[in-house]
Design goal:
The complex is a heterodimer of chains A (about 325) and B (about 350).
Chain A lengths: L4 E4 L3 H8 L4 E4 L5 H6 L7 E4 L8 E4 L2 E5 L4 H6 L1 H6 L1 H9 L3 H6 L2 H5 L51 H7 L3 E6 L2 E6 H4 L18 E7 L8 E6 L10 E10 L2 E10 L6 E2 L1 H7 L6 H11 L11 H18 L3
Parallel strand pairs in A: 1-3, 2-3
Antiparallel strand pairs in A: 4-5, 5-8, 6-7, 6-8, 9-10, 10-11, 11-12
Helix pairs in contact in A: 5-8, 10-11, 11-12
Chain B lengths: L17 E2 L12 E2 L8 E5 L7 H13 L2 E6 L2 E5 L6 E4 L3 H13 L7 E6 L5 E8 L2 H16 L10 H21 L2 H4 L6 E3 L4 E8 L2 E8 L4 H8 L18 E4 L2 E4 L12 E3 L12 H8 L9 H14 L5 H7 L10 H16 L1
Parallel strand pairs in B: 3-4, 10-14
Antiparallel strand pairs in B: 1-2, 3-7, 4-5, 5-6, 7-8, 10-11, 12-13, 12-14
Helix pairs in contact in B: 1-3, 3-4, 4-8, 4-10, 7-10
Classes of the chains: A alpha+beta (about 325), B alpha+beta (about 350).
Chain lengths: ~325, ~350
């Protein structure tokens, strides 16, 4: 691990000021950052520790909920308000990592989770995300874990977060603060596609601190499900995941949410699948049509072509479980 | 409410209730509901002969410290202590209220003339249940005292039995869950001091390990794991993968399992750290340690301290009950020898011992 300046600020204002310096990074739970620093994949010049700042409240906000950026994943997943109103978020959080990591990882940090692409994690090989312009080792490498949606010729790394997939389905808004300016960023605009600049992963500017995430009232609590398919039953990253919600009235789907994880370069919302569901009866046939509509122009590679079918099946399964099929 | 007839017990969802006062009295007799506590910890106490008195103030002071709401159900009415705004509501006795209380007590498995105490965390899960019990004030004060002592890092009162220690472990877990649930717990401890240390310089930090203050000087890059092993000679915590994937380095941070390898020592300042060395009380092993031995829950033993720490945290949380739930909760601890069946058996034995 490379040496770094360590700053433990007294408050958020001091944190933002300290993190404005080029090369500085906020430190929250550390589950991604400390790991990647030890691998020397990331070598920030300064760490601004925000884990102790009083940004961990989870509270009702109007009809919705406000979750502090420093709220731990395990606290969010078991909070009564979340369990009751946003079971999708609770399920996604509990599907991720281990209890130790969930106890450390924060909502703010999870929004910024870095990819598990093995080439990104190996400083010895080229990677456009880690070292811009060096090339992508994955393109001709072993691609079983890689993305089929949202890829570019520069990067095919999968976004690893479970939480973010649920947040995309729940219309989350990410609230940030930087020098004197507060921003509210819809989750769909928070993460960016790799394009020619896979080193840029989100809309944040240097020193911009995520303060909290807000979720609006959700009509999907009664029929929501996160399904994660992975190589082992626990503590593994998704090969494919689906976060879905159904709002059904009079035998017809009034509104739907379909978001995908494990198959795309960012948490992936499928408006196509949602449109295919609206107005239809909640049935296996409707679910299969939606799943077929969800995967638009996939770019599978040698080792991950199975994800096209797996993603569709995962969507169908999630919709069935959300609706209550056995 | 679930139609299940099993009485409420630790690990189950809290009883949901709405209690109505005597409408004819008018005034402030709005119903009292468990939903008032939603999202924060609360205590439901059946104390049939209790009347507000001197002990009420003492109990309320403790609740205020912990940020919990207390409902006391007595023969003379129902009382609600809300530590945040100091409002104390009560419902006078009525036939309807007596019926509602009888139903609630039955749901909780508390006899018509018995006392009982249920502690519910901020997630609506029962963390501590005692029914029937002796006098309320002693029971509740004892539970809060134990939780408070654990949270303040004080040793348990001397002369306790192993079974009492097991119960206290659960109570300590409740206390931690309480703090986590109310979100204000960390604020009650002084925030760690502000630091700005140039790269390569060393930082003087104060860690609280197993109830003791330990001062040390570290490079900011030093993990909590290395600080424990290399500087404090607490080598019971093991280094396995050093990347948060194996769980050998698991310690408790404010009662919750974390990976010491992914924790920077400087970031642990202000937290209460418990390592495997901090579990036993003298020669008395922690019930989880004893269960690991009696169930032969290891082979080479390298992962064991991490397994034990995760298991202690699991029991404190009180959520995982079935074998599958325990496996899922323990999935961050890898055992290369494959002692998993005996590890699960040991944890289940400790869990049942703590509840009996």
């Amino acid at each position: 691990m490379k040496p770094f300046t360590y700053v433990r600020p007294a408050d958020a204002k001091a944190a933002i000021a300290a993190a404005g310096a080029s090369g500085a990074s906020f430190l929250a739970g550390g589950t991604t950052l400390v790991d990647l620093m030890r691998l020397e994949v990331m070598s920030p010049s300064a760490l601004v520790d925000v884990g102790h700042l009083p940004l961990s409240q989870i509270e009702r906000r109007g009809d919705g909920i406000r979750i502090g950026a420093m709220a731990r994943n395990s606290d969010v997943a078991t909070h009564a308000l979340v369990v009751e109103r946003y079971p999708l978020l609770a399920q996604a959080l509990l599907a991720g990592a281990s209890q130790q990591v969930r106890n450390m990882a924060t909502v703010g940090g999870n929004l910024l989770q870095r990819t598990r692409c093995p080439y990104f994690r190996d400083p010895a090989v080229p990677c456009n995300k880690r070292a811009p312009g060096t090339g992508c080792s994955a393109l001709d490498g072993y691609t079983r874990s890689h993305a089929i949606l949202g890829t570019s010729s520069s990067c095919i790394a999968t976004h690893p977060s479970d939480m973010c997939v649920a947040l995309v389905a729940l219309d989350a808004v990410v609230h940030t603060r930087s020098g004197g300016r507060d921003r509210a960023i819809p989750i769909g605009e928070f993460h960016t596609l790799p394009g020619d600049h896979p080193e840029v992963e989100n809309a944040l500017e240097q020193g911009e601190l995520v303060t909290h995430v807000e979720l609006p009232a959700s009509p999907f609590a009664a029929h929501a499900r996160y399904v994660k398919v992975r190589d082992r039953a626990a503590f593994a990253f998704a090969l494919a995941a689906a976060a879905v919600g159904l709002d059904v009235a009079d035998g017809r789907i009034r509104a739907a949410r379909v978001a995908l994880g494990g198959v795309a370069t960012k948490p992936w919302r499928s408006l196509e699948a949602e449109q295919a569901l609206v107005g239809q009866p909640p049935s296996r046939a409707s679910f299969e049509r939606a799943a077929a509509a969800a995967i638009v122009d996939p770019k599978p590679r040698r080792d991950n072509a199975f994800k096209v079918g797996l993603a569709k099946n995962t969507i169908v399964r999630a919709l069935e479980l959300a609706w209550g099929a056995p | 409410m679930s139609p299940v007839e099993t009485p409420i017990a630790v690990g189950m969802a809290a009883p949901i209730f709405v209690l109505h006062g005597d409408d004819r009295r008018g005034g402030d007799q709005r119903p009292l509901s468990s939903s008032e506590a939603r999202g924060r910890p609360w205590v439901l106490a059946f104390a049939r002969r209790w009347t507000p008195g001197r002990d009420a103030e003492a109990i309320r002071a403790q609740l205020r410290g912990l940020g919990a709401i207390l409902f006391i159900v007595s023969d003379t009415g129902v009382w609600s202590f809300r530590p945040d705004d100091d409002i104390e509501l009560s419902l006078g006795p009525s036939r309807r209220l007596r019926r509602e209380i009888a139903a609630l007590a039955a749901r909780c498995g508390v006899g018509a003339r018995d006392d009982g105490v249920f502690v519910i965390d901020g997630d609506g899960i029962v963390q501590f249940a005692l029914a029937p019990s002796g006098e309320l004030s002693a029971t509740l004060a004892g539970a809060l005292d134990a939780a408070g002592r654990e949270l303040l890092g004080l040793p348990p009162r001397p002369g306790i039995t192993r079974r009492e220690w097991a119960v206290m472990s659960m109570v300590a877990g409740f206390g931690v869950a309480l703090f986590a649930g109310c979100g204000g717990g960390a604020a009650q401890r002084p925030a760690p001091p502000a630091v700005a240390a140039k790269a390569g310089s060393e930082i003087d930090i104060l860690l609280r390990i197993n109830g003791q203050d330990r001062r040390l000087r570290v490079d900011a890059r030093v993990s909590l794991l290395d600080a424990l092993r290399e500087q404090l000679a607490l080598t019971g915590t093991r280094k396995g993968c050093d990347h948060g994937q194996c769980g050998a380095c698991t310690v408790l941070r404010d009662g919750r399992a974390v990976n010491a390898c992914l924790t920077l020592a400087v970031s642990a300042e202000g937290a209460e750290i418990t390592t495997i060395e901090g579990l036993a009380r003298g020669d008395a092993l922690h019930p989880v340690q004893a269960a690991f031995i009696s169930h032969d829950a290891f082979q080479c033993g390298y992962c064991t301290s991490g397994q034990v720490m995760s298991a202690v945290a699991l029991l404190g949380e009180g959520r995982a009950k079935t074998d599958d739930e325990v496996r899922q909760q323990m999935s961050g601890n890898i055992c290369r020898c494959g002692a998993y069946p005996n590890i699960i058996a040991a944890i289940q034995a400790a869990r049942k011992g703590a509840q009996s």
